[in-house]
Prior knowledge:
Layout: E1 22-25, E2 28-31, H1 32-42, H2 45-51, H3 62-92, H4 97-104, H5 108-115
Antiparallel strand pairs: 1-2
Amino acid sequence: MVAREGKICSFCATPGSRDLQLVGGLGAQVCETCIDDFHALLHDPEKRAASKGAFPWEAMSDAEVLATLPQIMASAEQNNAFAHEWVDLLRERNISWAEIGRTLGVSRQAAWERFARKGGDKSETA
């Protein structure tokens, strides 16, 4: 597993570090603890049956839901940063803004406005 310092677990929001390894791809990062927990859940019929049904937040108090909101936002911001990294990769491969926009279902201009780095790639036609 690779250390993902500066990233958080997409499930529990624990920051990755040298001591806490994260793995993942396409934006999701998962810590070893969450992997172990999900593995145990998937391979224990009783735990698996108990996990079906209500979503965890349905049993949470308003205070618990409010306390979780910053973690949700941090995960969303992390995923947005991953999207920027993927667009940067595509631009490095000379994929046009038109193609990126078409893939995202938006115009070339909308893709450029969302993903162009300030002071960096300003080409609208490349």
